[in-house]
């Protein structure tokens, strides 16, 4: 990105910042405030935190005589950067009514103006570093665009009146899925991770060698119809399919189906960002935990792929699919791409759980300073997911992207693609 | 109330309903939504629940062909009436963003219009019952006016920027308190409870006999200055002053001072509805639990009064003082009444904890039907408080009024008046 | 007691101390150790704590040059006397395997020898005080005899093999109960509490006046058969019978019957100290909480008596019945006393919940010093029970005795006697 | 093992079973019963569960007309085998006093006799399978020998009188450690896992290829003295060294030093199976969590090795060291082996945390049937440890052995060996 022009940089900055604001247009003021559980945040917080990110890592360091917008915001809107200072407890974000939404938009405007001014006025020495930090900030903003949507869905789901974020007739997009097939991949000593071309997070680097035995990958993710067979076969009642921690989760949380599913008169429905809708049996199953993905795979006599098998297997698949840009905000069964590709629905629709725990690549070096906390300190107890979802901005995703969540988490648009050994 | 005219009834209805709406005028939309703990409710919920009360107990029963405003509201805004139907979990009230605040006001308007119409059109047969239910509904509304204020204060207190509800210069009202003295009361076989004149809740009835040994009651509540002596004497560190459950609470919640108190540079401040203010050492101490009131009394070599001692002792004291109507929303030290009265600050400023657990009066009969749940089912584990506070509407309080809270609760404007035996 | 001879005192001391040891004779070493929940204690702890009581309040204060048996025991076996020093957390008593049971018996022997020696050698000045403290210590020992039995039962109940403490054929004692009837009592200005004759705890004093309206008391406690009707009528499923806190307890703990009850093939059984036995429908129901007692009474159209109604009503009833001395350790239906008495089963079998919260009598003064912690600091959130149970030593109980437990507690032999107003 | 003779098999069976019984010889009956937390078990339970294992997987399947010792034991002593049937909750193992210890020894004797009889009488067809199952059972028994010791230590640690299991003068074994150095290892495409020679668990198989970049491994684990430097440098106070989940653990559990450490008069002591002893600064640090191991490594500018780096690096190191057989039951600084080896203390003393999460090897197949639950279902959220400890039986450990625990666990003898990249 250091080679792009200042004008392009400014355009890109404004484009992505406006994307965030466009996402909250359908909301009422009240919707911006609530936080239904620790792992989700209010929409207002996302608006403010992404702004704090630019203020903290750019304006405070590079803008001469910068005056912060409000001295209380560093405490309120720092998410988890211990080296930046103390921060407001994550679980209490839903208790903060001031600043108001309107004041939060003023905060965004103030920081945007200063960022644009900074980019124009900065000297050549700092420019490369500033460009790099803005690029990180914009990728960070895009991550929060996705979280804003998934958190909003989670928060709305606690309202028994089923609020509608955006009325999409998703059923229009239903079409019978391609038959499930498995594509064989040779493996061997392959290379994994970012080669440094284009933007990548520090956790995708360095590109490194990995031995892979031959394996097969499913041509598409598991569908709702297939997953219903698992449910109807007593999948949630039989310990034999589950990891020990997964079985404990089934019993603790009383899981009987994916998150947001409800059964009415013998028929499955799901709460979506377009309200309560009938399940489309041809669309990829979503809102399942790693444990459910893993149990489904065992039930199906298969296994989850490793993150390297996924990345190597889909290396030639175009990064196309149902992303946030399409505006469905839900996985759909209709396929809008070249069906001669072996992998259908390789990207978009649902994040795909892998069997790989999130850990550092060999010789990985986190960013220096506070931004080293961005990714590296979460490398325990979480699992890698690949491919992006219907809530991911299309320009944000790439083959080497490593998303990561705790194995019991279900509020993301997470699904599953099967794999198997070649014996 | 059954003797008042329909016009007076309508005026009183509108006056009290408007009071509620006036209380929320200073709020931003965002402020209406949050709930910082299970025992407090969002302002919006109070607006809606009080309206649901009229809809449920009046319109549904007496208004011919009444159409409910929204069929989801009976679930959302029923507080705890099991016999009315299932209700939304109390702890999740802060997750509900729809209906919006604006829709909630429409709900109020819709119900108000129907109530006024009902009163006008009703036949003579139902009129007495309707008047009685409206009276209960208005007293209920006033209780929620007080809760709206105390809950708002609690919710605001979690915001590190100390939001201001209404900027009062409370320090203007500081004046040295009258010396503490104890007034001797003879006791004997006295009568306690409502004699049926004027409105009373079912828990204040029937008037009944009670034997009281001679005792003394303090002329005024304990002040902040006196309470600070208790703190400075290590009151919160010495088990000997505390009930066992109280000592457990001290350690569990790490209490070191009343709720909302903060020490800065060796000086005590408290968060108030007017923001963070220095402690007025002459004003009554407030936001203390029953356990703290009791521990203070032991430390002072005194005890708490029983509810009957309080009621009998103050039977001739006028119901005057610092109520919500004054608009301070905080206890003040200045006294605005006839100081020739033996009891100063008998009513208003702070609810006064008694040593009496909340239990039924002899031969007490709760109201029939769902309204029997209003008071009776809470007669376990709670303590009686007397006298009203700076957040109580003046027309709501009376000598026989029995308020009740769990002994660990501190978010009400609760304080303490000392008593002692005559030996 | 200060008038009894030294010989009698020594005999009484040895008799009661030996009672405790006799109670544990049927136990295996392993049984002495466990603690299934915070509110119960291991048998070994009871053996040691009662001994610590004599060591602390007598030997350390009066025995010249007394050497403690083990310097770690003051920490380990102090129960809750804050003014005596820090103590081992109550919830961790079941983790202590050393001292062994054998060493604990040595501790008892050591202290017993020193107490006997103290009584003999003491000068006249201290003798009255020593006699009084020994009397308190022996009453304390008897309380722990009852707790030892109820705690053992609770601990055993977690073993799916249903261990037997003592094989009694309790069914031999089944006989049809007298018909339920209600005895009218006039009330008026009565006197309640201990008049100072004989031993009493500080919480039973002073004798004081109390006004009672006329009332009726049931001639006997509620039976299992009657309680089963409540269960079968959906008593545990209908909120209308329950206090709010009680209904929460029903749902939190999933109560469906008294503690220890199990249904097999449509028939009720209960775990007893004699193993799993069929319910005797004629015996008093036991192991119910205050909430269940109260809900049963509402279902039956009656109410619980106040503690004063109970005490006044049974003032002429002989203190006879099924106590620990009989060795059943379970309520029985057969009645062994003069059936011309109006109240059958007035004492023994089951502690009877009253509607009175445990609070100080007017002008009550707790004992001075650490022994003031014995009773007074528990005067919050607990309810008074009267009459003694099948696990109470007969010489320990009396008319004015006030037992107290939290309203959700069920591990004591607690039952219910109905009352009603005379209208 | 299928090639060994029946006599050798019987000898080995008796030898290992007797080892377990020898370990509990120093215990009092009381010590066998308690369970201080869910993750530890009473000694008695270990004695019974290992016996249940032989009864369940051998006698019930192969011994004609076998009668179980007690029909309640399948429920009580099944640990977690869902496919075998329902089992007693893990957290409640410390509440079971019956069977007594003596009865548990009878159970062992009964099963031992039947196993020996089974081995003698079995036909040739079943013999290989029986030999294999006995081998698994004996390895299982050895795992529980280690757990018995670590659980006992944990349970004892809650007794403020510091019970002594076996009085060793561990300080005799103190000697200055070899200087810390790093041994460079070339890596490349190496092979990892068991080749099928000798016994291995299913989780060690199959042997498979793994690419390793060149790296360096420390010649010995980190010592107490080195770890104290980390503590004194504020290691437990600085978020920057910690994984996010680790930092949460530090704050939640208030960690300030390894488990069992206490500071008295400025000097560190640790509770050991020989009582409270001064820290030997030259011995390997132990009882640290994965998070502490990882934080120490970051503080030291190094990292943890992967499990494959550990296994490949130590492939030529003899399996010698301080194991349970030595009887110290604590890491010691004295080295008893050939010091010309590059790796000192490669095995024994402490389990060494790796940065590898416990997951299946490529193409791994768990055992069929219930024994497939032995290892495979735990492959989530746990980390791999290598090398065995001072509580591991020497004949139980090997290069390819994969131990696994949750990253917050500290009750095992767990330590840390540093690694670093070759750049």
Please give a structural write-up.
4 copies of one chain form a homotetramer. Chain A is built from 9 helices and 12 strands. In chain A, about 30% of the residues lie in helices and about 10% in strands. In chain A, strands 10-9-8-11 form a 4-stranded mixed beta sheet. Chain A has a 3-stranded antiparallel beta sheet with strand order 1-4-12, with helices on one face. In chain A, strand 5 (about 260-265) and strand 6 form a beta hairpin. Chain A is of the alpha+beta class and about 425 residues long. The first copy, chain A, has 2 domains: about 5-155, Up-down Bundle (Four Helix Bundle (Hemerythrin (Met), subunit A)), CATH 1.20.120; about 170-420, paralog of FGE (formylglycine-generating enzyme) (Alpha-Beta Complex). At the A-D interface, strand 3, helix 7, helix 8 and strand 8 of A face strand 3, helix 7, helix 8 and strand 8 of D.
Major beta sheet, strand line-up of chain A: 10-9-8-11
Any idea what the CATH superfamily of the largest domain in chain A is called? paralog of FGE (formylglycine-generating enzyme)
Shape of chain A: globular
Mean pLDDT of chain A: 95
Low-confidence runs of chain A: none
Helix content range of the residues of chain A, please? Answer: 25-40%
Describe the main β-sheet of chain A briefly.
4 strands, mixed
CATH architecture identity of the largest domain in chain A: Alpha-Beta Complex
Strand content of chain A: 5-15%
Structural class of chain A: alpha+beta
In the CATH hierarchy, what is the class of the largest domain in chain A? Alpha Beta
Oligomer: homotetramer
């Amino acid at each position: 990105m250091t080679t792009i022009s200042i004008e392009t940089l400014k355009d890109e900055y404004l484009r992505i910042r406006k994307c965030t604001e466009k996402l909250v247009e359908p909301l009422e003021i009240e919707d911006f405030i609530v936080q239904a559980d620790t792992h989700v945040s209010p929409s207002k917080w996302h608006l403010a935190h992404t702004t704090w990110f630019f203020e903290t890592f750019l304006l405070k360091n590079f803008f001469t005589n910068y005056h912060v917008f409000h001295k209380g915001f560093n405490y309120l809107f720092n998410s988890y950067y211990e080296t930046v200072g103390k921060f407001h407890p994550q679980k209490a974000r839903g208790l903060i009514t001031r600043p108001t939404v309107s004041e939060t938009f003023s905060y965004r405007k103030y920081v945007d103006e200063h960022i644009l001014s900074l980019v124009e006025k900065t000297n050549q020495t700092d420019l490369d570093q500033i460009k790099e930090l803005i690029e990180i900030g914009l990728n960070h903003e895009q991550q929060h665009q996705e979280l804003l949507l998934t958190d909003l869905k989670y928060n709305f789901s606690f309202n028994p009146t089923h609020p509608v974020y955006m009325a999409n007739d998703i059923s229009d997009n239903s079409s019978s899925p391609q038959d499930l097939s498995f594509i064989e991949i040779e493996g061997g000593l392959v290379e994994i991770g970012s080669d440094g071309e284009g933007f990548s997070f520090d956790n995708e680097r360095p590109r490194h060698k990995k031995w892979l035995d031959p394996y097969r990958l499913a041509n598409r993710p598991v569908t709702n119809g297939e997953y219903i067979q698992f449910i109807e076969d007593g999948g949630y009642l039989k310990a034999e399919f589950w990891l020990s921690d997964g079985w404990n989760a089934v019993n603790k949380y009383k899981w009987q189906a994916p998150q947001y599913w409800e059964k009415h008169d013998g028929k499955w429905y799901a709460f979506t960002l377009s309200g309560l809708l009938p399940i489309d049996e041809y669309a990829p199953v979503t809102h399942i935990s790693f444990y459910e993905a893993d149990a489904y795979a065992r039930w199906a006599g298969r296994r989850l792929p490793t993150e390297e098998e996924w990345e190597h297997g889909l290396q030639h698949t175009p990064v196309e699919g149902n992303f946030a840009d399409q505006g469905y905000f839900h996985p759909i069964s209709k396929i809008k791409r070249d069906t001669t590709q072996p992998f259908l629905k390789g990207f978009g629709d649902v994040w795909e759980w892998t069997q790989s725990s999130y850990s550092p690549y060999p010789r990985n070096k986190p960013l220096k300073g506070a931004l080293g906390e961005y990714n590296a300190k979460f490398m325990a107890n979480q699992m890698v997911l690949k491919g992006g979802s219907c809530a991911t901005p299309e320009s944000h995703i790439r083959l080497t992207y490593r998303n990561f969540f705790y194995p019991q988490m279900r509020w993301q648009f997470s699904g599953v693609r099967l794999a198997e050994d070649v014996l």
